[in-house]
Design brief:
By secondary structure, this protein is α+β, with helices and mostly antiparallel strands. The chain has four helices and nine strands; from the N terminus they run E-H-E-E-E-E-E-H-E-H-E-H-E. The chain has one domain: Aminopeptidase. The structure holds coenzyme A.
Length: about 150
């Protein structure tokens, strides 16, 4: 699975696909990440996308990751490409996922990422402002909390 930085025309297409899944801007820990300010990696023929922000070195924020063809190694290939893409100057990669995303929690921990922070109830609080946030997520789990994971480079 080849992974390459999105360039020129395909960059806008990639950002639109990510926006369709996550919205734009993407909110992480209360911080605002417009996709226009993120760099994007493309796996294969748009089989997966990763949006990365380098605005807070030495920590790089993995703002979004999608494998549109699941369980075929797309997500693994995107994660594997990240350190080389970031280059020197970055010591950690950080991401945030909700409590119900057990597939992602498993996926990242299997690939060396460690649990770094828990924010209990923050999604419940956000739902008061934005009632469209679902109450139930994967595996019938309540959508309540956020968990940060980090990888030391
Ligand atoms: C989480 C996510 C990015 C994982 O991506 P993925 O491409 O499905 O992950 P991979 O295929 O690389 O790995 C998943 C499993 O499939 C296995 N796999 C990979 N290729 C395979 C193949 N050809 N046949 C069978 N299994 C395979 C991997 O070994 C891995 O299992 P392991 O963890 O036991 O090693 C993906 O599920 C996704 O996009 N989810 C929705 C969005 C999301 O939640 N993003 C993360 C938010 S923080």
């Amino acid at each position: 699975m080849t992974v390459r930085p999105a360039e020129a025309g395909e960059l806008e297409i990639a950002r639109q696909r990510l926006a369709g899944f996550w919205g734009d801007p993407i909110l992480v820990r209360g911080a605002v990440y417009p996709l226009a300010d993120c760099e994007v990696l493309i796996a294969g023929d748009f089989e997966g996308l990763a949006a990365i922000s380098r605005r807070d070195p030495p920590i790089a924020e993995l703002v979004a990751l999608n494998a549109f063809t699941p369980r075929r190694g797309v997500g693994t290939a995107l994660l594997a490409a990240l350190p080389g893409f970031l280059g020197p100057g970055f010591r950690q990669i950080r991401l945030t996922t909700p409590n119900y995303n057990l597939d992602a929690l498993r996926f990242y921990q299997r690939r060396g990422y460690r649990l770094a922070a828990l924010r209990p109830g923050v999604v419940d609080l956000a739902r008061r402002e934005k009632p469209s946030i679902p109450a139930v997520g994967d595996y019938g789990l309540p959508v309540r909390d956020e968990i940060d994971l980090m990888l030391d480079l």
